[in-house]
Amino acid sequence: MVFEVLSIMLMFIGAFFLLAGSVGLLRLGDSYSRLHALTKADVLGFGFIVLSCMLSTSLFSNWLKLFLIWLLVISYSALVGYALANRKKNA
Predict the structure, then answer these.
(1) What is the DSSP letter of 56?
(2) For 32-86, how does the pLDDT look when each residue is reduced to its tens digit (9 = 90+)?
(3) How far, in Å, are 2, 5, 70 from residue 77 at the CA level?
(4) How far apart are CA 18 and CA 13, in angstroms?
(5) Which single residue of 3, 68, 82, 86 has CA 20 to 30 Å from 34?
(6) Where are the alpha helices (DSSP H) in 28-91?
(7) pTM for this one?
(8) How buried is 25 (Cβ within 10 angstroms: 0-12 exposed, 13-18 middle, 19+ buried)?
(9) 73-80 contact pairs (CB < 8 A, 24+)
(10) Cα separation, 27 vs 20, whole angstroms
(11) pLDDT tier, 12 (very low <50, low <70, confident <90, very high otherwise)
């Protein structure tokens, strides 16, 4: 029961950060600020959602898969943000 409530709370926190990143993408002025808001908030929001999913499962293999997915999201978010920022600067 405690893990279910904590899982739901973490899911809502993750959804809040994803929503905040989307609002930042729409509201901020220049492309660098938009890129920063989107990459940081999305990684944090997705991290909370993955943590919520980890709490709702009891198998270690599922925990490991979710953690590896989260690491993949962190790495691609950083790489894509870097690539977009350099493309904008060089163009």
Answers:
(1) H
(2) 777 777 788 888 899 999 999 998 888 888 899 999 999 998 888 878 877 877 7
(3) 32, 29, 11
(4) 9
(5) 68
(6) 31-56, 60-90
(7) 0.80
(8) middle
(9) 73/43, 73/46, 74/43, 74/47, 77/39, 77/42, 77/43, 78/39, 80/39
(10) 10
(11) very high
